[in-house]
């Protein structure tokens, strides 16, 4: 009887060690994911806010949501490492609960992103129209967008021909310097219809929306993959807690 109990105890101890290792690997991947989301939020806030402000529907809290979710994942992941190392039953169950909460938050954020996708496209379209009309009054964002994405106007470079800016620069069919392929080329001092090879011809709206549509499936797949990966972590945490509880009982018995 004692020999059988000893074998059972050894098997339980081995299972606990194996599950701790798996959960530690999960914790590391989960923690790195949080760092990546946190970095994405900071990058969005620092570098992309100008582009986001071009949209007529500007969700200024979007970068902060990414930062908050990333920070939450880092904190929960760090908590999970402590729980796994200590092997405390209650803390492991609590960690599993936290993982499910984070999963629900990410799933809700992803669903909201799909729901507002059409509104974001509409807002970006209206924002570009406003940027063209108001170009010259704080036009840094539009210039940055055109030069960085190598695009010109909303649908094409010809959008500039009917803007208030075009009528103030004493040119015939001119575009801003940010539309130039070569920085030294003075696009706003020449007829671009006769020299269209010197400028970016594709519109910024189609370029941005096309990029979003072509990568939306990949982004959604990665996001949902990460979310459901957390369910695996919650399952591992609960299974480990159950094994640790069994191991503690066998040692007392």
UniProtKB/TrEMBL annotation:
This is Tetraspanin. Keywords: Membrane, Transmembrane, Transmembrane helix. PANTHER family: TETRASPANIN (PTHR19282:SF252). It comes from the Eukaryota. Belongs to the tetraspanin (TM4SF) family. Pfam families: Tetraspanin (PF00335). InterPro entries: Tetraspanin/Peripherin, Tetraspanin_animals, Tetraspanin_EC2_sf. The lineage of its organism: Eukaryota, Metazoa, Spiralia, Lophotrochozoa, Mollusca. GO terms for cellular component: plasma membrane. It comes from Magallana gigas. The chain crosses the membrane at residues 21-44, 64-85, 92-116, 216-241. It is found in: Membrane. It is a multi-pass membrane protein.
